[in-house]
Design a protein that fits this description.
Structural class: alpha/beta
Oligomer: single chain
Distance between the termini: 16 Å
Strand content: 5-15%
Number of strands: 16
């Protein structure tokens, strides 16, 4: 391609409409709901079908075509089997899919269309869209199989509607299938991830960080999801289960009942309860050791196991005595409460080995590391999972990181560098500090991922009174009536306070109680709407998706989806309510984005040469 032709192509790219951006947070392992939103583009696929074929298809036919686009591999055999004339049905379906594909590609530049089509999309899609020269070498060859062609067209429509995905943290936690979400994210052609606190604790666990491992295993047990570890990641938990059943034989473990029981058998339920208690005690012990090793973390007040008065059945917390729920702690030496027994040490060593040698987990953590960060600056907006820690007066909170005092952007950069060191540093001492920072990010008061005064795990299990369990949110969540603290954050991160938005998740928005996800005069948009079924009673909805398109910024509130199986069988869709946050006076072009800055610079360089 000669110079003049390249200049024309770059100019055309700059004048194309901005690529749609999708912002999602706090999916917490809820694969079904998340993947459906990803594949239906917050309803945009169905809108495209109606725009192109609205006067040609019955509503039931449009529903079936939309479901085919969302789940082509599973829906196609059902539709072929139901057709009176399968060959004729295939011809009509391919014609309809081609029309929809051309429609969704019409306003996108050739480059953005090519970027949206992943390598597993069949080569004929590139030919259809006039992008033969941009088809990747690994794209499947032209196929004479109409079913292969139909699947390729469906995948292309999915990718074109979505554009770019910002995953604003917490892929992991209590939901049943975070591994499937990680597989789905890894396939996306355009993605960035802002690490959440639950993602971070899994990252630390994958490196053998004991505090992180103790939490992850205990949390999986608490929600009856140990099969995430055993089935999804293939870990051997037999030594842990054997230890827990022996150590707490005959113990009802009343304070350690599961939060939910996803259909466990009586034997599985008993094992999960006892594993939860065993891991809770192990967590209290290994965390105390980490606190002693890292005095700069300021977590001394979180060592509470040694304060239990077994005779009186009380424990003092923050100067107040509370009744203890459970004093049957056979593995706790009252003289040396934070020492692991030989059996506990053997269990922890085994768990370290299982986490550190699990190939699938390591692959998923590499996706988090390679495509993720603690924060992102995107098209003039700040994306982060929880908060920028603030003082009560709205000023940036200073945090001690191994003797270095940081706040705001500097705090984020310092912590992020330590995370990278935990994975990549050559010397073991530096790597250990990096691993310990991941644990601190999970529960430290100064952590921008935690954003609370304390992690009350001990109090939740061991204190009967609920008052002991109170966790006070950082001032970031208390100052939404004022815009200035957030303007100060924007200035600190080098953004324009007049135009920037801060997009975050972490704290579920209580929509059912009238809480507004748009805060601080429109400066802050909280998009944790309860994708996780466990949070939907709190929010009253089933998740938010924020979509930034060329014409507006729209927040979608979703209703629950019964199941993916139901959706495929009955052509069900997630119904979403749209709320326009901001409308643009003129359509935004690629020239108005971060990508446009790079293209402008490239164009100027070419024109000057």
């Amino acid at each position: 391609m000669d110079r003049e032709e390249e200049i024309k192509k770059i100019s055309a790219e700059l004048n194309a409409l901005k690529t749609p951006e999708y912002f999602v947070s706090d999916v917490h392992g809820e694969y079904g709901a998340f993947v459906h939103i990803l594949r239906n583009g917050c309803g945009m696929v169905r809108v495209a079908i109606d725009d192109v074929l609205g006067d040609q298809l019955e509503e039931s036919e449009a529903d079936a075509l939309a479901t085919l686009v969302y789940y082509p591999h599973r829906k196609l055999p059902l539709l072929v089997e139901a057709a009176d004339d399968a060959d004729l049905w295939r011809i009509h379906t391919m014609k309809n899919l081609l029309a929809v594909l051309r429609h969704v590609a019409a306003d996108r530049s050739p480059r953005s269309v090519a970027d949206a089509l992943s390598s597993d999309v069949a080569r004929e899609v590139y030919v259809i869209l006039g992008l033969e020269d941009k088809a990747p070498a690994q794209a499947p060859e032209l196929s004479n199989d109409p079913d292969v062609q139909i699947i390729a067209l469906c995948q292309a429509i999915q990718h074109l509607v979505i554009g770019h995905v910002h995953m604003v943290g917490d892929i992991y936690d209590r939901g049943p299938a975070p591994h499937l979400i990680m597989d789905e994210l890894a396939k996306l052609p355009s993605l960035d991830i802002q690490w959440g606190n639950h993602d971070m604790v899994w990252m630390g666990a994958s490196l053998g960080q004991r505090g992180c491992i103790a939490h992850v295993v205990r949390n999986c047990a608490r929600y009856g999801n140990l099969d995430i570890l055993t089935d999804a990641y293939g870990m051997d938990l037999a030594p842990l289960v054997d230890f827990a059943l022996k150590a707490y034989e005959g113990d009802p473990c009343e304070a350690f009942a599961l939060k939910v029981n996803p259909g466990l058998s009586p034997q599985e339920l008993d094992a999960a309860i006892k594993v939860q208690k065993a891991m809770a005690i192990l967590q209290f012990k290994v965390e105390a050791q980490l606190i002693d090793e890292n005095p700069s973390f300021g977590l001394e007040s979180r060592k509470l196991l040694h304060l239990i008065d077994y005779e009186r059945g009380i424990v003092p917390v923050d100067g107040v005595e509370y009744e203890v729920t459970d004093t049957y702690l056979p593995t706790v030496d009252r003289e040396h409460p934070y020492e692991l027994t030989p059996e506990e040490e053997a269990v922890m060593r085994h768990l370290e080995h299982e986490f550190m040698t699990c190939e699938t987990l390591q692959k998923h953590m590499r996706v988090l590391l390679d495509r993720g960060s603690l924060y992102a600056l995107s098209n003039g907006n700040l994306l982060l999972h929880a908060c920028v820690p603030l003082n009560e007066d709205g000023s940036l909170k200073e945090v001690d990181i191994f003797g270095k005092t940081c706040s705001g952007l500097a705090l984020y950069d310092e912590l992020q560098e330590w995370v990278y060191r935990g994975f990549r540093a050559e010397d073991e001492e530096t790597r250990k500090r990096g691993r310990d920072i991941m644990w601190y990010l999970w529960l430290g008061e100064g952590s921008p991922l935690f954003a609370k005064s304390k992690m009350a795990t001990f109090e939740i299990y061991m204190c009967r009174e609920k008052e002991a369990r109170k966790e006070v949110k950082n001032a970031f969540y208390q100052l939404f009536d004022s815009e200035e603290p957030y303007n100060n954050i924007f200035r600190d991160f080098g953004l324009d306070p007049h135009t920037a938005h801060l997009v975050c998740g972490h704290v579920p928005v209580k929509v059912k109680d009238g809480e507004d996800p748009v805060k601080a005069g429109g400066k802050v948009i909280c998009i944790d709407g309860g994708f996780s079924a466990a949070y939907q009673k709190t929010t009253g909805i089933a998740g938010f998706t924020l979509v930034s398109g060329p014409n507006d910024l729209v927040l979608y509130s979703h209703e629950p989806l019964p199941s993916v199986d139901d959706a495929i069988r009955d052509n069900l869709d997630i119904h979403s309510t749209a709320r326009i946050i901001e409308e643009y006076a003129t359509p935004r072009l690629i020239a108005d984005t971060d990508e446009g800055l790079f293209l402008h610079a490239r164009l100027r360089k070419m024109q000057a040469s």
